[in-house]
TrEMBL record:
<comment type="function">
    <text>Functions in the N-end rule pathway of protein degradation where it conjugates Leu, Phe and, less efficiently, Met from aminoacyl-tRNAs to the N-termini of proteins containing an N-terminal arginine or lysine.</text>
</comment>
<dbReference type="InterPro" id="IPR042203">
    <property type="entry name" value="Leu/Phe-tRNA_Trfase_C"/>
</dbReference>
<keyword id="KW-0963">Cytoplasm</keyword>
<protein>
    <recommendedName>
        <fullName>Leucyl/phenylalanyl-tRNA--protein transferase</fullName>
        <ecNumber>2.3.2.6</ecNumber>
    </recommendedName>
</protein>
<dbReference type="GO" id="GO:0016740">
    <property type="term" value="F:transferase activity"/>
</dbReference>
<dbReference type="InterPro" id="IPR004616">
    <property type="entry name" value="Leu/Phe-tRNA_Trfase"/>
</dbReference>
<comment type="similarity">
    <text>Belongs to the L/F-transferase family.</text>
</comment>
<dbReference type="InterPro" id="IPR016181">
    <property type="entry name" value="Acyl_CoA_acyltransferase"/>
</dbReference>
<keyword id="KW-0012">Acyltransferase</keyword>
<dbReference type="Pfam" id="PF03588">
    <property type="entry name" value="Leu_Phe_trans"/>
</dbReference>
<keyword id="KW-0808">Transferase</keyword>
């Protein structure tokens, strides 16, 4: 990923296009999944959370086109990732790396990816026990 980031093929923004990010997360087909859990009502609810500054997005651009991103809920010390999408290879990884770098700078305690999978493991994620998660959640 370092080579891809150094090529400068992508640019990244934060909280600039939340509705499009969540809409792509709803529409993009995923291998091994039949449909999505992101309903239109959920999109509207999350967009209201975005208006309140609670939900946040990361957008990845290539040639002025939105090609990847992710969104989630920001608790101030924990970011709860909800979904990500990629229209071109590596775009969701770029979004994830940008988010991790941002959260490190802001001294966040945890990035909750919710569903552990090989893709997230390849990006450095690891499972933690529930009691550890609850302890971190209760910290401010």
């Amino acid at each position: 990923m370092r080579n891809i980031l150094n090529k400068g093929e992508f640019s990244v923004t934060f909280n600039q296009n939340f509705r499009d990010v969540i809409s792509y997360c709803q529409k993009v087909k995923r291998d091994g999944q039949n449909g999505t859990w992101i309903t239109n009502d959920m999109i509207e609810a999350y967009c209201k959370l975005d208006d309140l500054g609670i939900a946040k997005s990361v957008e990845v651009w290539q040639d002025d086109n939105l090609v990847g991103g992710l969104y989630g809920v920001d608790l101030g010390h924990i970011f709860c990732g909800e979904s990500m999408f990629s229209l071109v290879s590596n775009a969701s990884k770029v979004a994830f790396i940008a988010l991790v770098n941002h959260l490190k700078k802001e001294n966040y305690k945890l990035l909750d990816c919710q569903v552990y999978n090989p893709h997230l493991e390849s990006l450095g994620c690891r499972e933690i026990p529930r009691n550890e998660f609850m302890r971190i959640l209760q910290q401010q």
